Predict the structure.
Amino acid sequence: MSKTVSVMEERKEFLARVLPSLEPAEVEELQRISLPVHYDEGELIAQEGSYAAGVYIVQSGLVSIGKYASKGWEKRMLRFLAIGEMFGLEAVFLKREPINVQFAKALVESTLLFFERSNILAFSKGHPRMFADLCRWLSREVIMLEFKLTRAAVESTDRNLALLLIALAHKYGEKDKAGIVLDLPISRQTIAEMLGVSIETLMRVLKRFRERNLITTSQSLITIVDMDNLKERARTTPFYLSIIEETL
């Protein structure tokens, strides 16, 4: 099998996991209108206020979604997209000028599948089964948005870090004899931004987690050594936990 064929098969398998309601022939057609795009760490994918060209699905890496404050230079991180998550749907399916309402930036080296606006609209009209998967994804996003709004207002940084580590472990963790290893090349400053706290606050919480034998740290590595107690630290219901494990 040639390298090109192998890459195509890998892309089809990925799309079949992201959109499981589609039939194999539909996945094949969707794969043909997809364009893989690669971004280096820190590179801007979409600018707030610019033309929204289409829909992106994260195939590898980690992407931040945010907005600029009224001052124009201050940025606020809203959410983070892991593998299998997407953005750009609102600009495609809302019947108004296709403008990016947020910016998107690669936190680490990332590959995304891009679907041009007119192509994905034409595909959706001919293959309405796709909307079952999009509705499922958007429903999960609404649940998590409500949860995050409440969490940000009333919950401790300890709990929020526990929830974030659980989500990262589900998407990026690798099991070894020491525990679940997170080897994401993201800085502590980025993690602090993900939590909406200062770097000093994050370092204090990481220290508490180490002292309680929940994690170990070494440079960019974070190893979760006691997932059960970390989940207890998160103090959330099994329903929300199942959503959190799939969502950042």
The chain has ten helices and twelve strands.
